[in-house]
Amino acid sequence: MSNIVDDIKREFAKSENSLIKIILINTAVFLVLLLIKIIFTLSQSAQIYNWLLDQIQLSADRSAFLYKPWTLFTYFFAHEDIFHILFNMLFFYWFGKLVDEYLGAKRVVALYILGGIAGGLVFIVLYNVLPFFQAHLVDSGMLGASAAAFSVAVGASTLLPNYTFNLIFLGPIRIKFIAIFYIILSLAQTIGPNAGGNLAHLGGALIGYIFIKLLQNGTDLGKPIYAVMNGWSNLFRKKPAMQVTYREKQVYRSKSVYSSTTVTGSVETPDQTEIDNILDKISKSGYESLTKEEKQKLFRASQQK
Question: Start and end of every DUF6576 domain (predicted)?
Answer without folding.
Answer: 271-303
